[in-house]
Amino acid sequence: DDGLSNQKVNPATSVTDKQALFAANIFVSAYSTAQVDKLVKLSATPFYAGGKVAAQTTGDLKDMYGNLIVESGALKDWKLLTPNEYAPNAGLPAGNFVLRVQTEKESFAVVLTQTNSGEYRATQIAR
After folding, report:
1. What is the pLDDT of residues 11-31, one digit of tens each?
2. How far apart are CA 24 and CA 121, in angstroms?
3. Residues 43, 32: contact at Cβ < 8 Å?
4. Cβ atoms within 10 Å of 98's Cβ, excluding its own
């Protein structure tokens, strides 16, 4: 143990899963610096938006994230939540966390789903 698990995460969160926190930090960092390629690497296909497939390929993901950054504006705040904290009755299965992002123009939520290797990938977005 490197002792980092006892440090506060900014912003404060009840999530203690190191891999989920790592994925959330990478996503926020990439979004705030408009690094579309990093966002794509942190995502899985098919990628869903509004319950429908929004991206089947990495090219689709690049287009989607590029548009999201332009449409949403600069990052203002974010928080990593458990599914129950985000929406108690949404029915998200275990192994998921929700990254709530507040930007200049809107807020959106990104579902981070655990892969078989234990890493987390962005799998869907709700705006």
Report:
1. 678 888 999 999 999 999 999
2. 9
3. no
4. 23
